[in-house]
Amino acid sequence: MKTVSTGQGLASASRRVLADEVVDAIRIAIVTGEFEAGKRLIEDELATQLQVSRGPVREALARLEQEGLIINERHRGSTVARLSPGEVDELYSLRTALERLAVEWVCRCATDDDLAEVGRVLERFDTLPKPVTRMAVANLDVDFHDAVFRAAHHDRLYRAWTALRSQISLFLLQRGALRPDFSTTWRDDHEEFLAALMSRKRSSAVKHVEGHIEGTYRRVLAMEELPALD
Hints:
- By secondary structure, the chain is mostly helical.
- The protein has two domains: 8-80, Winged helix-like DNA-binding domain superfamily/Winged helix DNA-binding domain (Arc Repressor Mutant, subunit A), CATH 1.10.10.10; 85-224, GntR ligand-binding domain-like (Four Helix Bundle (Hemerythrin (Met), subunit A), Up-down Bundle), CATH 1.20.120.
- Helix content is 70%, strand content 4%.
- The chain is elongated, with a radius of gyration of 19 Å.
């Protein structure tokens, strides 16, 4: 990665692009497990590995802290986050509230083209390299729910979802949130989800999404041996 300094405006734009690239690189390393929970993230080491200055790394760490992927402690610096049992409950309850609202708005506002776009995400499952990996399905899962939120046509709701998206990716990949037989059940599960949306019956669609998310939550709890949220 190289900076460009051909003028004040262009240099500023280049720094923003570079910071985005650094954010993406570190985020991928966290989500895929290359950087495990609790790992210290040292600016100098990351800058050397990514071949950038410390500035974009510092900016990237700050942004990833906002996403909930990094914890910044005064005497320890930045470390990869591991969600506590209380945070697991918070994430589950907030995601349930957001997706319930998204489904209600999809039933009311989504066009046929919007729902077709959600369906096209499902079709991508058939193009995944075989054998299907947990990471590939987790990424597709997030894309599916992202398409649902887009179909709701609720800008503030979509922004709230994006604030959770990275942590949900972590759950799917590292916390046992995907079903053990994800390679054979994921598409059928999400076909049922899409069918509930296409019915445009709010009560049944909301009930479906609540059950869908609760299944994910309980798999995480079982993996971590945590008590369920009452």
